Amino acid sequence: MPWSPSILNLPWMTITKIEAVDPVRIEADYTGPVRCPHCASERLRKKAPFVRQVRHESIGQRLVWLVLRGYKYLCRACGRYFRQRFPGLLSYQRATEPFKSEVCQDHHDGICQSRLARRMRLGTATLERWYHRFLERKMAERLNAACPRVLGIDEHFFTRKAGYATTFCDLRKHRVFDVVLGRSETALEGYLARLKGKERVRVVCMDLSGTYRAIVRRHFPRALIVADRFHVIRLIGHHIHQLWRQIDPTQRWNRGLLSLLRRREDRLDPQQYQALAAYFQAQPAIAALSRFKQELWELLRPRGLNPPACRPLIRELLDRIWQLKNSPFPTLAALGQTVEDWQEEIARMWRFRRNNGITEGFHTKMEMISRRAFGFKNFDNYRLRVRACCC
Ligand SMILES: [Zn+2]
Q: Within 13 Å and on the Cβ side, how many CA atoms surround 218?
């Protein structure tokens, strides 16, 4: 019966016999050229035969055992003995590379280790070892990847013992470029000093962290720093709500009211709007404060503008900063000072569209990766998995 050799997904293999039970048993012969692994000579003498029985890619839901016949050879050129090797099957391995890749891809796509191991009749440790190599290979493909043009930098929590880690995110291609342990200048110094292609980076998006700003200015000389809109808006809200609690301490624990104050005015439904309006009637100072906050938020919302469109906004921002800094409340004066320190980076938000929402999204994914593994102790393993899964 003429069997197509390509069904095996291995070169030079001819099927000689199939027992189509479960597991399927396929006997095959290697028909390709045999060379000495030491000197590549083809002057060989055939010696004793042997049989290798290995796992191979599934056919449908059925598991496959591949039985390969080979020979021991004597090389006449170098005088050494060797056992014949087969393409797609490494020495000492009891599974072919296509099979490993099948299992690893299934695991990578989300089938949990224990279930997959049971279905494939493998040990979990074997699966883990294969998967680890699979990730290493995946990461090696991106080893020499150039620095992204638009970079997002943010910190996230790793473990209580090791502390925080810094994420470098490619905001144009929506993937994690790298994660590095630590968030201080000294912790990141070594990594950034070794990083290649730093001059490619044109835009860096970050929260209002002085440390990261100093690092970026030093290591990415050609990059423009853009503040992250989410963090700026949150910072403004935080300061204003702090002041609100000082002005009206009786409502401090009123969660419903706080939730209403935190929202965008135009997203309130009529009932919520009325509730807030009633509160503002009783507290005119807070009404003014809330108005100021809403206007400031609205000022920061536009994106992707051209320079002429930014100009009036810059004037308005400077005006707002002046108002904040000259406020009698220390909370607002402090906010004014922070915004002034970051005014250039904040003003650039109007020109750009990207923000660190992508990075924050990846942080959620990393948390999931960490939880699925019941936490990581070794940062290198964590990094390997994050880089392979967040792309
Ligand atoms: Zn030889």
A: 13
Cα–Cα distance between 188 and 108 in angstroms, integer?
30
Q: Is a pLDDT exceeding 60 seen at residue 286?
A: yes
- Give the C-alpha separation, 216 to 224, whole Å: 9
Centre of ligand 1 to C-alpha 32, Å, is 18
**How far apart are the CA of 232 and the centre of ligand 1, in A?**
69
122 CA from centroid of ligand 1 (Å): 36
Domain extents in the chain: 1-94, 150-227+355-389, 230-348
1: pLDDT confidence band, cut at 50, 70 and 90? very low
pLDDT surpasses 80 at 391: no
CA of 34 to the centre of ligand 1 (A): 11
Q: Given its phi and psi angles, is residue 260 left (phi above 0), alpha (psi -120 to 50 degrees) or beta?
A: alpha
CATH of 150-227+355-389, one of 3.30.1330.30, 3.40.190.170, 3.90.1150.10, 3.30.420.10: 3.30.420.10
Q: At what angle do helices 307-325 and 284-300 cross, to 10 degrees?
A: 150
Please give the distance, rounded to the nearest whole angstrom, from the Cα atom of residue 48 to the centre of ligand 1. 17
Q: Give yes or no for residue 27 having a pLDDT over 90.
A: yes
- pTM, two decimal places: 0.77
Cα gap 44→78, rounded to integer Å? 10
The sign of the torsion formed by the CA atoms of 258, 263, 266, 269 equals negative
Distance, CA 54 to ligand 1 centroid (Å)?
26
* Helix, strand, coil distribution of the chain in percent, nearest 5: 50, 20, 30
Q: Which residues are registered as beta bridge partners of 81?
A: 74
What region does 84 belong to: left with phi over 0, alpha with psi -120 to 50, or beta?
beta
Nearest Cα residue to 285 out of 341, 328, 319: 328
pLDDT tens string 139-192: 888 777 788 999 999 999 999 999 999 999 999 999 899 999 999 989 999 999
Confidence check: pLDDT of 26 > 80: yes
The answer to whether residue 249 scores a pLDDT higher than 80 is: yes
Q: How much distance in Å is there from the Cα of 192 to the middle of ligand 1?
A: 47
